[in-house]
Amino acid sequence: MIKNVNLLYLFKFFFLVFMVSCTEISNAQRKDIVISEYLSSNSDMMKVKMGAQWSGRIMNFKFGDYAVLRKSRMSPKRTEQKSNFLGTKNQYETRYKFDFLLSYKDIDTALVEALYIRNVKELYALYIIPIELVLDEIVKDSINFTADISLRSNSNNNWKLFFNIKSGIEVEFRNEGILIKDDRTIWIKHVSSNRDGNDKRRYPALGYEFLENGNAICAVQYFGGGALGYNKNRIWIDSNLNEEMKLILAASMAAIMQLKLSEMSEYE
Fold it and tell me: Contacts from 221-230 at CB under 8 Å and sequence distance 24+?
């Protein structure tokens, strides 16, 4: 009888552990960025392996059948700064560029050549006694990011990525981009895990969804939210697209991940 009771308790214990684990998995899924129902149903979520980032290189991203090759290059960041005589107005511009090859199996390769430019204007208050400078406002913080994307297999399939992030008291906030080729335009919109108000974490998951003619065709999560969000990058690509278009989108999202990770590293 005692053995039967112990077995019953063990069964209940393992059943409880199983239910808690399922709940945690379900919650983790809900904490990814919110993407359209169509894209969720017509794509497989690919976890991004970050790999290492060496000096003069970008991250060795790998997701699904896509991987950044080791021939990537990244220039040093160069900053030029200007200030007025009293130091109450400060402006600086930061530039860097990178390029990389993203392979799809052994079938094809995309070349990405990217340029990052950030312009910041700061306004300081001057206190005479004691003499002290205190930052009052970020007047303007503007990031312009562009990338040329081409395929080894098709020299005519060239795309241009434009990305703009603006904030500050003098400008309207923006965080979006476009991917264009001839008469085709794909809009890139910022999304989060709290888009429907269901993620109450202080730091929700963040990413971008790509829309063509109002329909989502891919999405990238560059931050997973919470304390360990840097290691939860995700990629979704519409499985109904042809292989060339999938590679173009994969290369665009790899470029955006590198942009965002480099940007976030400045605030660590």
Answer: 221/32, 221/33, 222/256, 222/257, 222/260, 222/261, 223/260, 223/264, 224/31, 224/32, 225/31, 225/193, 225/199, 225/201, 226/31, 226/201, 227/203, 229/203, 229/205, 230/261, 230/264
- Token pair for residue 149? 């994307």
**Measured between alpha carbons, how far is 235 from 46 in angstroms, rounded to an integer?**
5
Measured from the Cβ of residue 235, the count of other Cβ atoms closer than 10 Å reads: 24
Residues 120 and 263 sit within 8 Å (Cβ to Cβ) = no
Report pLDDT digits (tens) over 106-162: 899 999 999 999 998 877 665 555 555 555 566 678 899 999 999 999 988 999 999
Give me the helices (H) in the chain, please.
2-30, 37-41, 243-265
- Structural contact between residues 35 and 231, judged by C-beta atoms closer than 8 angstroms: no
* Cis preceding-peptide flag for 130 (omega within 30 of 0): yes
Tell me: pLDDT of 14 over 50: no
Q: Each residue of 67-121: pLDDT tens digit?
A: 999 789 999 999 998 877 666 688 889 999 999 999 999 899 999 999 999 998 8
Is residue 58 scored above 60 in pLDDT?
yes
- Asked if residue 98 lies in contact with residue 258, where contact means CB atoms within 8 angstroms, the answer is yes
User: Helix (H, G, I), strand (E, B), or coil: what is residue 12?
Assistant: helix
